[in-house]
Amino acid sequence: MNARIFMDYCSSIDIxxxxxxxxxxxxxxxxxxxxxxxxxxxxxxxxxxxCDNAELFGGDKNKVLIECNAKIAIAxxxxxxxxxxxxxxxxxxxxxxxxxxxxxxxxxxxxIQSLKDTLQGYFKQHPIEPSxxxxxxxxxxxEGKLTEEVTLESDSSKNxxxxxxxxxxxxQELLRCVAASHKGRWGNQFSQFEYSVTINKx
Length: 202
Description:
The protein is mainly alpha-helical. The chain is built from seven helices and three strands. Mean pLDDT is about 85; it is low at about 190-200.
């Protein structure tokens, strides 16, 4: 595992901007599509880092096209824990439902519960701080005042932000796995991301 390749590959897209847009999207599809893009990017980054090749998937003119589910399976074979693989597949399935099935227009409670159950089981064996149960998403206005706070116990109307919360814990754990699996010398300080979402209100 080459952690520098992983971090560089992920940071070549604007992760904070996509997270903010996913959090503030006014429709469930917009949230799910943006989070899925981030999931797929991290999966590709994991594969590239394991193979020590940042150009493994090519560029604009020679892009290697592989279905996301297949990429997730490859990443699993390269060491991503099985529960994280299952969670990534849930994100992929949710994205496909919202993008291709006109009968499904919202993030269903069953998807949130599935992700929650899978990650809770994993974090019982691999504790993380803050715990899933104590984690929350906060929305702040331009003055830095907290205007909304969502946890996994919030009602179904908050499923977009609950999905963002679950993704953030998934990303946190993947970064931890990358740091633990890194081989070789550290070129730069490796640090995990911490995000806050701000709504500018006038």
